[in-house]
Structure formats: structure tokens, C-alpha cells
Design brief:
Layout (H helix, E strand, L loop, with lengths): L12 H10 L4 H8 L3 H8 L7 H11 L3 H4 L10 H11 L9 H4 L4 H27 L2
Helix pairs in contact: 2-3, 6-8
Length: about 140
């Protein structure tokens, strides 16, 4: 079941570049470690060349992150879409059927991210209030 609108259904080269830069790796060094050349890697990063499954696996192994991130399904490179749903349920269990999968399915990625952030913030505020009350006793 797909819970997020996927704008680009293929591999996102910009995500590859972001992770490469995050790891402070040059285009040359990354290409060498992936067993390709600078030109090919540049074309992948610019979405001018597709990525086969072997290259995708090598990218995941070298740079880390989740397949969901590279496919544009989530914004956080280290979490899967299913984990987003689990976190949302964990942090904010109130709301009745608001968090039912069919309701979440209607949300855009941007709204889903905002809802998750709100739920996390509310959970953390609640924890701080509990700690504050304990200290004041």
C-alpha cells in the first residue's frame, strides 16, 4: 500500500548527490568505489542515466540511507516509509481514525511530514511537562 504521493517514481539522482556530498566524497572517489567512472556517475546524479539493481545496491552499501529516500518516498535518508507510519502512531496515539492508513494515504508527502513533526513536538512537550511536574514536587 502506497501512503505517499510519489512525484518521481524512479531513482532520484539528486538524492545520490546529496548523500555523496554529506559523506564528503568527491565525484571521482565515489565513482571509483562504485566501480564506474566520473561521467557515468554525473549522468546518474543528473537523472540522465538510469540505475540498475546492482548499482542501486552498491550505492546503498557505500553511502547508506534507505531505498525509500533514493526513490523520493521520504525526506529523511535514514528512515523508511513504514517507519514514518510507525513513528506517527507511536508519538500520537490520539485522534481516532485520523491515523488510519486510508486517511494517511490521502496526505501529500509535505503534509505527512508536517503531521509527523507536529506529533513529535507534542510528544516531546508532554514529556517535558511531566518532568517539570516531577521536579516541582
Amino acid at each position: 500500500m502506497e501512503l505517499v504521493m510519489v512525484m518521481n517514481k524512479g531513482f532520484r539522482g539528486d538524492r545520490l548527490k546529496a548523500m555523496r556530498v554529506r559523506k564528503h566524497m568527491s565525484l571521482d572517489a565515489c565513482a571509483e568505489k562504485l566501480g564506474t567512472n566520473k561521467s557515468t556517475l554525473s549522468r546518474i546524479e543528473n537523472n540522465k542515466k538510469t540505475v540498475d539493481s546492482e548499482m542501486f545496491a552498491a550505492i546503498l552499501e557505500l553511502l547508506g540511507g534507505t531505498a525509500d529516500y533514493y526513490m523520493g518516498r521520504v525526506e529523511d535518508p535514514f528512515i523508511t516509509h513504514a517507519e514514518y507510519i510507525d513513528q506517527l502512531k507511536k508519538y500520537h496515539l490520539i485522534g481516532g481514525d485520523m491515523f488510519a492508513p486510508d486517511k494517511l494515504d490521502e496526505l501529500s508527502q509535505e503534509r505527512f511530514e508536517a503531521l509527523l513533526k507536529f506529533a513529535r513536538d507534542q510528544y516531546l512537550l508532554n514529556q517535558l511537562e511531566k518532568e517539570s511536574k516531577k521536579e516541582n514536587k
